[in-house]
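Following up on my earlier thread - several people asked me to post the actual chain instead of describing it. Fair enough. Here it is, all 337 residues.
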Amino acid sequence: MYTLVDKNKSSFLPLTYSRPISSLRVGILTIKEKWELALNQEVGVKSDEYLGMNLHLNGEEKDASILPSSNKLNNIWDIYVLNAIEISNDFSALIKGRKSNKISNTNKIIGEKSLIFVEDGATIEASILNTKSGPIYVGKNAKIMEGSMIRGPFALCEGGVVKMGTKIYSGTTVGPYSKVGGELNNVVIQGFSNKAHDGFLGNSVIGEWCNIGADSNNSNLKNNYEEVKLWCYDEEKFINTKRQFCGLFMGDHSKFGINTMVNTGTIIGFSVNLFGSGFPRNFIPSFSWGGTSGFKTYQLKKAIETAKLVMQRRDKIFSNKDTRIFNHIYNQTSKYR
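Reply from S.P.:
Thanks for posting it. Predicted structure:
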């Protein structure tokens, strides 16, 4: 059996506070799922003990940040940078030898219809689907509502929803049971998160159990067109990404109030509650509560209570393991608050 090992986990914080690198979604699948599909066998994971995935297995170890397609993830921004090509790679692997479900004739297809794959139970109505730049994958029981405009490569994973009139550009993945609306460009949503209303989100990576309030927007390009600097947990300072387009990176269980604005190259940690007018700072530590008028610590008990309610709405149970993860991250990140 192969075992995936976290070798540069800190390069993908805050997303990897709550998951191993192998559980990151890039393209349609997580890295672990890609390995299992490529090897046609179950793959083990060795990560931090508090995540409950520290499996000591016999067999060959693989760096979890290396994709089977040989694209190397070095930094957190590589997730959105590589996402378009990874959607295409995953699409080819997933549909091999399979037949797509029928696509309603209420839709307008631009490009090759064969580059659209619809899983069981998925529905698409009265939308424009453009495959000239890449494929479009619609997962099991997912839904694309009327008036949506989608340009591939695009992936909507199981149970995901694209709301009416949504505009989606190439290189976007909407993870399982997530809802999106407004405008998205080259965004990766890991799963169970909502950006369900108008507002722009671009060149960004969003964790699980996040909510972005109505009419919230992020900047993905500086006014002076310079390369974007981003907070680095390894060096505990801002470093140059050498990228002109770079948006928002949001840890699990974080939330935005309505009309929230986020600046270019912003890192928002685990379990943050952000609200208010104006642009907050570019690095917001985990368990922070507030906005431009100032932040206070989001108390652990309150954060857990909210997480329980959020997960309960999706028929998921906040487990003892989740409690251990919250406690560990709260203590681990206290130096930044």
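The radius of gyration is 19 Å. That should answer part of your original question.
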